């Protein structure tokens, strides 16, 4: 657990750790008691959801709006969601992959239409 002297996170200007209970912090704005597990995530979330003005001030005072963990490039081989969404890939009209994908799309649409017609027939009084 961090000692008071090395707490440099700006959120500590809005929170105070209980002297009698090491696992509780108190919000100085609303006096709510929060569980403290050694990190500042729950305190930041509390400020963000309960005290948006103070949270905005905190973010203005902070030099970095993005947490360090999110700012670092990923070490995973898997692309991020944003990388996947922004990456455009088109296949040539004569490629086998494009034909395969087109057939899958068409067959799915046929199945969906068939299911929808069946459900419509079933609900409109098929007599069954």
Automatic annotation (TrEMBL):
Q: Which part of the chain is the BED-type domain? A: 6-58
Q: Which PROSITE patterns match?
A: ZF_BED
Keywords assigned:
Metal-binding, Zinc, Zinc-finger
Source organism, top-level taxon: Eukaryota
In its UniProt record, a GO molecular function of this protein is: DNA binding
Q: Which SMART domains match?
A: ZnF_BED
- Region Disordered, as annotated, extends over 68-96
Check the record and name the InterPro entries matching this protein: Znf_BED (IPR003656), Znf_C2H2_sf (IPR036236)
Compositional bias of kind Polar residues = 73-83
* One of the Pfam families matching this protein, by short name: zf-BED
UniProt-recorded name of the protein: BED-type domain-containing protein
